[in-house]
Hints:
Blueprint: H1 8-27, H2 40-47, H3 63-69, H4 88-100, H5 111-127, E1 134-138, H6 141-156, E2 168-172, H7 178-185, E3 193-196, H8 206-218, E4 223-229, H9 241-251, E5 254-259, E6 281-285, H10 286-289, E7 297-301, H11 304-311, H12 344-354, H13 356-378, E8 383-385, E9 393-398, H14 403-413, E10 419-423, E11 426-432, H15 440-456
Parallel strand pairs: 2-3, 2-4, 4-5, 5-6
Antiparallel strand pairs: 1-7, 6-7, 8-9, 9-11, 10-11
Helix pairs in contact: 4-12, 5-12, 6-7, 6-11, 13-15, 14-15
The structure holds pyridoxal-5'-phosphate.
Amino acid sequence: MRELDIPDQELSALADETLNLAKNYWSRLDERAAYPATSGEETARLFSRAWAETGRGRGILADFQQIADHSRPSGARFFGYVVGSGEPVGALGEWLAAVLNQNVTSWRSAPAATTIERTVVGWLADAVGCPGFIGSLCGGGSAANLMALTMAREAKLPANETGASPCMMYASEQAHMSIPKAIALLGIGRQNLRLIPVDEGFRMRTDALKAAIAEDHRAGRTPIAIVATLGTVATGAIDPLREIADVARMEALWLHVDGAYGALAALAVPDQFQGLASADSLSLDAHKWLYQPIDCGCLLHRDAAIAREAFSNSGDYVRILNQNPEEAFAFFEESMELSRRFRALKLWMSLQYHGRRTFREAIARDLRHAQMLAEAIAAQPELELLAPVTLSVVCFRHRTKDNEAILRRLVARGRVYLSNATLKGQFALRACFVNHRTTAEDVRTIVDEVIAAATELNR
Ligand SMILES: Cc1ncc(COP(=O)(O)O)c(C=O)c1O
């Protein structure tokens, strides 16, 4: 036998035991705390061992329990950040994708996987009201935003050959940190991102946007792109897309929509997302509001030629000689990566297993859960809402206690997990619902737990 070969019987036992671990994990998820009681010292002690000279064989599976016990579970009562719940069919798709080990660089390297990815990208485009948009899957919203702004620059002020010239981009002050990060990575410079003030609903103020662009023109600067956020990370606010699209059109600027968190809610509440198709590019995260295992971001756009301007850099060894358009297609010509995982298989399996209606209803339930929590907060005199609830984020605070201390107590109690945001200088407790496992009972627990944590602070 060769070095890495495993006898059939042993491989079969290993695969069966691995699958059993997954099944047991899923079936007992409810018994786990919302967040593991662990520490950096403990995880370092448990998981920093040296790579042994001699293999441990199937003994490695014994570690899984310990790893799971020190991991954040994708359970019903985790409401922090924007973390999807890792739908099991998608997880099984991940496993099968790894078994196939496709390198989805191009049709030539991965025929079925390439066509499947192009198909699911089309499904996502349809789901958000952008039929005809094309694109690719990527690690997440940050990668999608970086690719989008790279395309924006190449379309408006080409830099790939001669290097970057100074230019300006615009996003609201509630934009996700991946926007300034992308602008820094592109060498545009974070100071050349104008953070536009927001209204009382945390939406970009278009009057301020217009004023900022006019000021930059007067100063001889070169505006090239606007980023509208549909579902801001802190409060779920939806920037006024139609007005922003008008500004982009008048000024001939690239319009990128960061819909990493929010845009897939268009499946359930399309009216809130009217005008998405006016964007030049759009980021989505199926690992957020389509409940897929991480990573599963997507960049949609309308123009393959601009994508190629931005990303095509073919070395001779990957040059494609085929003339058939499907067979000649290469993701590496139109996106950032060369070696790429078969991310589309989990979506292909999960979206078809459940069907479109199931996802629409799951998203609608998340939206209802957010409204339920908002009502429970309004009914509790000790608590106060800090932002309108537009999508599935609820930001609130205890009126009299130290909210940061409440959050620490709450997490330590382990029954629910919330994260935080800073809104108009105030520390906010923040719950986000993008979780197909959450029930109405779980939502009711949030207010009870916050009050219990606040009460404990007095002791
Ligand atoms: C609005 C928005 N944009 C971008 C991102 C980044 O996405 P990812 O974490 O998948 O890179 C997030 C993450 O929460 C987000 O909410």
